[in-house]
Design goal:
This protein is of the alpha+beta class. The chain is 20% helix and 44% strand. It is built from three helices and 15 strands. The strands form four sheets. Strands 10-14-13-12-11-15 form a six-stranded antiparallel sheet, with helices on one face.
Amino acid sequence: MEQWFAMRVTYRREMKVKADMDALGIQAFVPMRRIIQQGQRLKNTLEPAIHNLIFIYASEEKMRTLKKTRPELQYMMRQMNGKMEKIIVPKRQMDDFMKVCTTSPDFVEIVAADGVLLKPGQEVMVVSGPLQGVCGYFQRVEGHRARRLIVSIQGACSATIEIKAEDVTPV
């Protein structure tokens, strides 16, 4: 059975690993953010939002094989019930996370797991707009005036995007 694994990639090789996964026909996702640099020329590019982070959709057996051939891949771990476990993201949660990340990379903020301190918020589902059907939490995030939709992958990262209250309904 295939599932989403949160993986670390050494030495900022996440885009190379993603290209290799694409070539092998394995679905992989790297959260991206838009960067506008000014220097000699205006440069508008996408880059990984959190370096060394990639999500791979594969079976447990396929991941073991990949890890043997790709030593730069490492499982992300979190402590659960007193022991360390691999971070495996449920498909629905990963679909929501990818939808938020790819809908509008100019307005999405991706934060590492240790970079966001969340207070309990209202769990909601988006009922209109491009994010319709996405479930997450609706609350204020430090540094932002408006409330935001937060889709979090515990132990890995969170994606936040500003959303109107009338576009969500409590779950």
